[in-house]
Structures are given as structure tokens and as C-alpha cells.
Write a structure and sequence with these properties.
Helices cover about 20% and strands about 20% of the residues. With about 325 residues, the chain is an alpha/beta fold. A hairpin with a 6-residue loop joins strand 12 and strand 13.
């Protein structure tokens, strides 16, 4: 055993470091200027599948991002192992600014927003004309979320062989929303897919719809290489189908620079986060008439200036009715 004299300042003496102040701290975050660009394709329990150039890379969020979460459609900066080899793991160090966001809450009383998709150009609302019956209130809520999030809406009506689309189209005619009507036979022979593709080419499109409407079947037809398990059946009592998509997934359109994002089947679409001032932006013919509205006007009250604006002939009364019907969805449940 080595013994020391009175002078114990030799350089070779080892000391145990204290638990505190052993590591310098700084608020300066690394810029990661050499990070590669990636696109988030899907998210599963903290692991994010990303497309980096032509490689599919598995990544996780860097601790420095804090509670900020990346979602499908996000453009991100990635560092680390970008080879895409099995068992490799990269790190997402930055989430780029979003051009659009599709949000929803669990219900209208829930203040917690859930970001469903980022950076999509349009929202395709898939609705069956029968089996299950259409739910206009849910459609309205999806439209409100699209307008509030900066997405252009698209109506895709399926199963026209079971019921005509006229009544539903009349309800949304004054909103000037593009639409595609399909039947089961047209999906099988490919004619419906061709018409839908015309609306998708060159765009990032998020597909939403409640279970049983044929949303995933349509996505499978659009992207045959990425077949997804389709809905097994529709419950005869509730009119609802089994959920076959458990997480959002971005898929490239073959022969196009467009993308399709398949999302889980909806049970509800809360709008707690939506402000009326966001929805009015989707009505450029009505928006100038809001200049005379009282502060925090809901656009559906006695002092709303839109009534006078329409009475003076600046806009179609049916457009004002459509706006107020959409805004009223926050006060009513989807099944009403």
C-alpha cells in the first residue's frame, strides 16, 4: 500500500469528482448546419420513419427539441447514421417551419390539440353515400379544420352505386369545393382512381374519413405497391367499421411528385382550437364585410356586419348560410 508524506500535491493523485458542477452548461444549441433534409413518413412509439433522399431512415427526436414533436409530413433536419441499414438509428435535430397544419381535439371540451398532419396541400374528406350513412356534421368539422389549418378541401364520395350523391352535393354546392364521386365498380376497374388522381398530382393530400367509408381501399388503389389491410366489415348496428389504419402514413403516388397521407379512421373531430376568424379566411367574398363587425364577433349574432354586407348584394346569401353552418359545428356534436 502506498504511503504519502505531508506533501500530497503530486500530479498522480486521483480524486473522485463531485456530483455537481462537473459538466459545463450552456444555452447555446448546436446549429447542425451539416444536417440532411428528411420527410417524416410515419411515427410509431417514438420512432420516426423518414425519407432522406432515396433512403428510408429510422430516427428518434433529439433531446434538445424538448416537448416539440414531429408528425407525418414534417420536413426535418437529421444527423447520425443515414445509411438506412437495419438497426441503424439517426437523430432529428430540427423541425422546419410548417406551411399548413391539420389539428383536432378529442372533443370540443378538450383544450389539448393533436397535430394530425403537417405541410399537406389539401384535405380529402372521404364519405360513403350509404353503408354507413353520411355524417354531414363530421364533414363540416373536417372542412372547418382544413380552412383553419391552411389546407384546401376535397370531397371524395364513395359507394354511389348504393345511393345518389345529389342531396349531399347540394348541401356543399355553395362552398365551391371540388369533388369526385366513385362507385365500387369504378374502383375495381380503375376509372374512379384515374379521376381521383387528377386532383392529387403534384400535391400532398391527407385523407380523412370515419371507418367503413372505403378510405383505405381507395388509398390502396392509388398506391398499389403499399397495400394496406382494408376494412373487414361494417357493423350492422352502429354503422361503423373496424379501424384498419392505426397511425398516419405518407405514401408516394407512382408516376407523380404527389403524396398521399392515410390517417386513422375518425370517431370524432373536436374543434376546441378553432377561432371563427380563421374560418372566415376561406370565404374571400364575405371577409371584407367583417370590417364592421364588433370585436370578437362570432359572425352569427344580431350585430354581425355580414348581414348588411349580404343584403347590399356583395355576396350570395347561401354563402353566408354555409359559413354559419360550418361555424355552428363547434356547438353541435358530429351525430346531430
Amino acid at each position: 500500500m502506498r504511503r504519502y508524506g505531508k506533501h500530497t500535491d503530486e500530479d498522480d493523485i486521483r480524486t473522485r469528482p463531485g456530483r455537481r458542477n462537473t459538466r459545463p452548461r450552456t444555452n447555446i444549441r448546436p446549429k447542425h448546419e451539416d444536417a440532411s433534409e428528411g420527410l417524416v413518413l410515419t411515427v410509431d412509439r417514438g420512432r420516426l420513419t423518414c425519407l432522406v433522399e432515396d433512403r428510408v431512415v429510422m430516427a428518434m427526436k433529439a433531446r434538445e427539441l424538448g416537448r416539440k414533436a414531429a408528425v407525418v409530413g414534417d420536413r426535418v433536419a437529421i444527423v447520425g447514421d443515414l445509411t438506412g441499414r437495419k438497426d441503424s438509428l439517426a437523430r432529428i435535430v430540427r423541425i422546419e417551419e410548417r406551411t399548413s397544419v391539420l389539428r383536432r381535439t378529442a372533443d370540443d371540451d378538450d383544450p389539448y390539440e393533436r397535430v394530425v398532419v403537417a405541410n399537406a396541400d389539401q384535405l380529402a374528406v372521404v364519405t360513403a353515400l350509404a353503408d354507413p350513412e353520411p355524417r354531414p356534421r363530421l364533414i363540416d368539422r373536417c372542412l372547418v379544420a382544413a380552412y383553419a389549418g391552411g389546407l384546401e378541401p376535397l370531397l371524395v364520395l364513395t359507394k354511389s352505386d348504393l345511393a345518389p350523391p345529389d342531396k349531399l352535393l347540394e348541401l356543399y354546392g355553395h362552398l365551391d369545393i371540388p369533388y369526385v364521386v366513385t362507385s365500387r365498380e369504378e374502383l375495381q376497374n380503375g376509372t374512379a382512381v384515374a379521376r381521383v388522381r387528377e386532383q392529387l398530382d403534384g400535391k400532398i393530400t391527407a385523407f380523412v374519413g370515419h371507418s367503413g367509408v372505403g378510405k383505405t381501399t381507395l388509398v390502396n388503389s392509388l398506391v398499389p405497391r403499399e397495400q394496406r389491410r382494408t376494412t373487414g366489415h361494417v357493423n350492422a348496428v352502429t354503422g361503423r367499421g373496424r379501424h384498419t389504419t392505426t397511425s398516419a402514413l405518407a405514401l408516394p403516388l407512382a408516376g407523380s411528385d404527389g403524396w398521399v397521407i392515410d390517417t386513422p379512421g375518425l370517431r370524432s373531430f373536436g374543434l376546441h382550437h378553432v377561432d371563427p376568424s380563421q374560418v372566415i379566411h376561406a370565404f374571400p367574398d364575405l371577409e371584407p364585410g367583417t370590417e364592421g363587425c364588433p370585436r370578437a364577433c362570432s359572425h352569427d349574432e344580431p350585430d354581425c356586419a355580414l348581414d348588411a354586407w349580404v343584403a347590399e348584394g356583395h355576396a350570395d346569401p347561401a354563402r353566408l348560410y354555409s359559413l354559419r353552418r360550418l361555424l355552428a359545428t363547434r356547438e353541435r356534436k358530429e351525430g346531430d
